[in-house]
Inverse folding.
């Protein structure tokens, strides 16, 4: 179970990760999701090298087939990440969008 | 180092809906005790390798839970390191004996997974990953798929190469009555199986499994198979923080430590049980353990070198995680059982003739924990 307190604590870190550009290092298309992600499957999870040198793993959204390649340029955006569950708090987090 | 293995046993692995964790460890422990010709009171401590008893089973006190079940009111504790929990339990038992505190220790590995929905199990297994990976909706097949794509990009590894690992390990499992999947598969069947996390397909992935394994380690000379090296290394929890995604650094570090401890080179290994949670993981293990050069393992596997009857080292005679099954906390202990059987010469139809030195390779998470043991026959 994700505690609302943990969501609140983690979401304070998100701002620093928004609007960053990067390139896809590797990716996968998830067909069998974990609990909380059933409605989104299949979806793309990408490992991206950000311009600041840091790597980050998150979902890729708004993609077309041509974007699914190593080296594709992306930028970080704010999105809902998973089902809110019983607590009802919508968890937001970082995802990538092709540019 | 010389720690004697007095007895070793596993239960049948599979979807064991009629059986509880208590039943499973009782069977494994009693068979190991019988084999060692020991009574329960000879055991001075119990180490339990398990990952998910808390999240899936609501049981957080496993040491005392199983000690009671076995009638052994001695020091007992759970050791956890994701899918490397079993290997870490063996490592902890080795430390306990080396320290001089205990002479004889029982190591149990157990996991009960098939009582739950796959989505729940996938979510709980992601407990071994990072917050970012969980928020991304990543799964373990997904994380290994990300590594597989890097390996394919850099070394030209293909989906067929990965499928060959499943074909080999299913063949071995077809000779192992304790395996979850006691049947061979064809390359075509693997290639046509549905995608789980592209490029990994269903038959590239180890299954969700129930099972238990037990080994009795002792300082007293009981028979001719000994653990001569036990090494652990860790790396970053998540993939994002790693420099290289085409192999596992923790495996390279732990195996080098183990070879040094044992005073042997990778070439001397006759038989090994490696952590093929996904087919790409066996390819990377072959390279990280030093059996083949980087980028050359896939060809060696396809040519049959690591299959029973090949030039060796023979890999995953049990069927590996892929086909024998992967009850996560039991796997690291089961690997010791299989190598023990091989070195004792009691592995039956899957016996590697004349095997003298064996290795086990147990990995936690996407490579954050690696445990390597080397076993030798006197």
């Amino acid at each position: 179970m994700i505690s609302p307190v943990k969501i609140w604590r983690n979401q304070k870190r998100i701002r620093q990760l928004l609007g960053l550009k990067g390139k896809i290092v590797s990716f996968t298309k998830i067909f069998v999701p974990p609990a909380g992600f059933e409605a989104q499957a299949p979806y793309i999870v990408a490992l991206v090298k950000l311009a600041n040198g840091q790597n980050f793993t998150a979902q890729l959204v708004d993609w077309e087939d041509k974007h699914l390649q190593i080296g594709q340029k992306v930028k970080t955006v704010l999105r809902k990440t998973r089902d809110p569950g019983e607590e009802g708090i919508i968890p937001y987090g970082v995802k990538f969008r092709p540019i | 180092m010389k720690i004697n293995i007095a007895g070793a046993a596993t239960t049948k692995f599979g979807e064991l809906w009629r059986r509880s964790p208590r039943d499973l460890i009782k069977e494994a422990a009693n068979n190991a005790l019988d084999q060692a010709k020991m009574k329960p009171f000879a055991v001075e401590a119990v180490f339990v390798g398990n990952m998910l008893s808390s999240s899936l089973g609501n049981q957080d006190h496993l040491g005392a839970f199983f000690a009671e079940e076995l009638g052994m009111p001695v020091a007992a504790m759970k050791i956890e390191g994701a899918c490397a929990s079993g290997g870490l339990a063996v490592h902890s038992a080795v430390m306990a004996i080396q320290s001089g505190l205990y002479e004889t220790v029982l190591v149990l590995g157990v996991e009960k997974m098939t009582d739950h929905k796959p989505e729940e199990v996938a979510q709980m297994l992601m407990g071994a990953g990072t917050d970012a990976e969980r928020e991304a909706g990543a799964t373990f097949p997904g994380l290994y798929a990300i590594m597989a794509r890097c390996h394919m990009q850099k070394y030209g590894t293909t989906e067929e190469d990965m499928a060959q690992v499943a074909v080999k390990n299913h063949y071995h499992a077809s000779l192992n009555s304790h395996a979850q999947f006691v049947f061979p598969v064809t390359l075509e069947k693997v290639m046509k199986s549905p995608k789980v996390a592209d490029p990994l397909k269903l038959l590239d992935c180890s299954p969700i499994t129930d099972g238990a394994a037990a080994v009795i380690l002792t300082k007293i000379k009981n028979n001719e198979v000994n653990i001569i090296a036990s090494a652990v290394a860790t790396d970053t929890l998540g993939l994002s923080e790693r420099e290289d995604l085409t192999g596992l650094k923790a495996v390279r570090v732990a195996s080098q430590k183990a070879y040094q401890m044992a005073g042997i080179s990778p070439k001397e290994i006759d038989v090994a049980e490696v952590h093929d949670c996904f087919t790409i993981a066996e390819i990377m293990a072959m390279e990280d353990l030093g059996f083949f050069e980087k980028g050359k393992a896939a060809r060696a596997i396809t040519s049959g070198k690591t299959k029973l009857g090949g030039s060796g080292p023979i890999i995953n005679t049990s069927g590996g995680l892929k086909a024998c099954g992967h009850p996560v906390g039991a796997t690291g202990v089961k690997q010791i059982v299989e190598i023990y059987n091989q070195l004792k010469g009691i592995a039956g139809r899957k016996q590697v003739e004349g095997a003298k030195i064996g290795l086990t390779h147990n990995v936690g998470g996407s490579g954050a924990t690696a445990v390597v043991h080397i076993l030798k026959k006197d």
The mean pLDDT of chain B is 97. The interface with chain A takes residues 117-120, 122-123, 126, 130-139, 141-142, 145-147, 149-150, 153, 194-200, 238-242, 245 of chain B (CB under 8 Å).
